[in-house]
Each structure stands twice: as structure tokens, then as C-alpha cells.
Amino acid sequence: MRRNVKLMPVQILAVGFALIIFCGGIILSLPISCRNGADLSFIDGLFTSTSATCVTGLAVVDTYSQFNFFGQLVILILIQIGGLGFMGLATVFAFAARSKITIFQRTLLQESLGSSHIGGVVRTIRRMLVGTLVIEAMGAFLISLRFVPKVGLAEGIWYGIFHSISAFCNAGFDLMGRFEPGSSITLFADDPLIEITIMALIAVGGLGFIVWSDMADHKFSFHRLSLHSKIMLTFTGGLIVGGALIFYIVEGNYSFKGMSAGERIMNSFFASVSPRTAGFNSVQYADMSTAGRFLTMMLMFIGAGPGSTGGGIKVTTFVTLMLSIYSNAKNYNDLSIFRRRLPADAQRKALSTIASYIFLVICCTFLLLMLNPELTSESCFFESLSAMGTVGLTMGITSGLGTVSELCLMFLMYCGRLGSIAVAMAIVRKKVIPKISYPEEKITLG
């Protein structure tokens, strides 16, 4: 007699994302999705689907040159599903059908959002859906103002919608191949409307839906916000401003050479915002200084907020690591910030997340170097960090990679979107509790 298999919420999310990626890969590889009826290899279609669903932006083919309107629409739908989470999309249909959200479905939504409380999760989802629609519509309108005069009314509106959703979901896909393949928004490096709009969309999407809901509950009163929201707002602002200042200093004679002071400031902020974790670039990373690329990798590593459309180890994890270093240096027992003490297991969870993240990136970098000996260590490490952080920035090596290298990056994108710890939990069906507790013995650390 067969035993019923019950999946944990994290396993349902993992399987759901995998099925969406696979179906998207099949559709994108068909002639119906490609220009002039040309087909695309299944592995390249699967890579594009993975990158879109995991809101990364790495591409082995130029989106505009390869895909027709239908293919671009499929990519956009995958981006929206990846940004909201497929459980968020399922909730849309539940709301439309006026169906009751069960406790199990609420648990799935809680896991999808990364929320620590199941209470109020449906309200958060409702706000998320309405907020997403409003913000993306505003972004689409502003971006369309620039493209309608260039490509006509219908196509200009489509460009506005596509890039607004791609930016808000931190995906980094673009249709700039119409003007110059692989250019991202480098052709608009002097355009405040495009750059500021995309920066705003990226930043808002990267804060996380939990922060949105908290701000709405407390009417934007900072001192009444939860500790999570205070950390996200404070350190997100600090990372953006601090990163922009460093980029302005180090890139003056490199990628920003020839720009006016105003353009340098704007592109400095863009270079600081985009790696966390959007994938748009206003300058070519091959033209950046080594210091600029290293700073970009650091920002990709940190990423955005939990429960957001972005990736990386997450800002709160990074802050927990910094607090841990400070507390150990001061010989404190607790991790405290904003007159609040973090839970006892926060440090362990943060270190586990960072360790698994670094381990996967190092393994993939080694495989890329082994399979592509002509590539530099920097470019392979940059590519691996970009995939794991679901960023989508590249030093131009993505399109030349082989099948095994693409599979390696796909796995990193998948882990980066779900979280490496979540993927491990999805593989292990049950929590294993040791039957024996062994004697404690100290070891020397540091």
C-alpha cells in the first residue's frame, strides 16, 4: 500500500519554481517564440527561462534580437511570477474567484514572503499586489514618455511596460537590442528620466514586501516601525549613498571619463543601486576600473531585502554579520541594534546562509574556470556572484559558455532565488533529530 507523500511548504515552492522554469524553457525554445520562426536550443531556452523566473537577467541571447512579441511576453510573465512568487500569483486567482485562503495556503504565502509571522500574511499579499500594480504602472508611464517618440506609440508603451516590470522585479532584462545588442541602458547614460525611474523601481522592489506593509501600518513613522524595517531602510540608504560616493571617486578616469559632473553623480548612484540586484548597467563593466568591479561584486554579494524581488545574502544577514564581528570584538554576549536585541539563533542562521552562499559561488567559479580555461578568474567569479545573487550583470562571457557551464549558472540562479538553505531544506524531507547528544569539547577558533 502506497504511503501518501506530504510535501513541506518550502518543498512545494521549490517544485513549483522548477516546473514553471521547465515549462517556460519549452515555450521559449519553440519557433512560435522566436523571430522569423527560428528555433532556439532547449538548453538556451531553459537558461533564459531560469534567468527570467529567478529575476536574474543573465542572457545567452539578446532578448530583442532573438524573441518576437510572444516570446518577450512569455519572458515578462516569467519575470512577474518570479518577482511576486508563484504563490503570490496563485493568490491573485484566489482573490478573483473569491476563494477562502486556507491555513496551509497561508503557510505557503508566509514561506514565499519570508515572513516570520503567519498572521496578516494575506493582508500583506493584498498590499503587495496592489502596490506592485500601481508602482509598475507609474514606472511604465514615465519610461514610455522616452520611448514613444523613438519607436512609436504601441511599441513605446510596450517598452515602458517591459522595462518597468523588469526593473521593479530586479530582473535586468531589456529590449535595447533594437538599438544595440547587449547595450542594456548604456545608450541612456545621460538621460535622467530613464536612469532615475529605473533606479527608483529597483530600490522600491528591493526593500521587500514586509517593509512595505510595515510602513503602511505605521503611516511611515520611522520610530514605530519594526526592527526589520528600520534595519532595511537605514542600511539600504547607507549602502546606496556609500557605494555611489566610492564609484564617483574611483571611476572618474575610467567608465565615467568624459561625463559631466551631473552625469557622474547620476551614474554613480545607478552603479550603486543596480548590483542590488537588478542587472541593468549604464556603463560597460569591461570599461570599469578593477576597484569598481570589486565594489560591484561586494554589492552583489550583499543584495536586497528578505521577501523582496532581489537576491544576495540579504541586507539583514549582512547587518547581523557586522553586529557579530562588533560584539565579538567588544566581548558582548548579545547582538543589539536600535535598542533591540536580536534572537539567539540569528547569528547561526546568518553564518549558515553566508557560508552556503560562498561555498556554491566558489564551486561554480572553479567549474567555470575548469571548463573555460581561456577565461579569467575575475570574470568567472563575477559571473558566479551575479548568478547566485540573481543580479544579471556580466563581463560579457555569458553567451560564449557551453552547456555544462550554463547548467551550473542555472543551478546558482535557482538557489539564489529560493535561498540556498531553502533548497537544502527542500531536498531533506524531514528534520533529523539526533538520538544521542555527545559530550562537549572546545576547539581553537581564529
UniProtKB/TrEMBL annotation:
Domain of life the protein comes from: Bacteria
* InterPro entries on file: Cat_transpt, TrkH
Q: What is this protein called?
A: Trk system potassium uptake protein TrkH
What would you give as a GO molecular function for this chain, any one?
Answer: potassium:chloride symporter activity
Per UniProt, the keywords (alphabetical) are: Cell membrane, Ion transport, Membrane, Potassium, Potassium transport, Transmembrane, Transmembrane helix, Transport
Short name of one Pfam family: TrkH
The answer to whether the entry has keyword Transmembrane is yes
Q: Could you state one GO cellular component term attached to this entry? A: plasma membrane
Per the UniProt record, the lineage of the source organism begins with: Bacteria, Bacillati, Bacillota, Clostridia, Peptostreptococcales
Which ranges does the record mark as transmembrane? 12-30, 73-96, 128-145, 193-211, 231-250, 311-329, 350-371, 391-415
Topology relative to the membrane:
Multi-pass membrane protein
User: Subcellular localization, per the record?
Assistant: Cell membrane
Q: Does the keyword Cell membrane apply?
A: yes
Where would you say this protein principally sits, based on its record?
membrane
**Organism name:** Aminicella lysinilytica
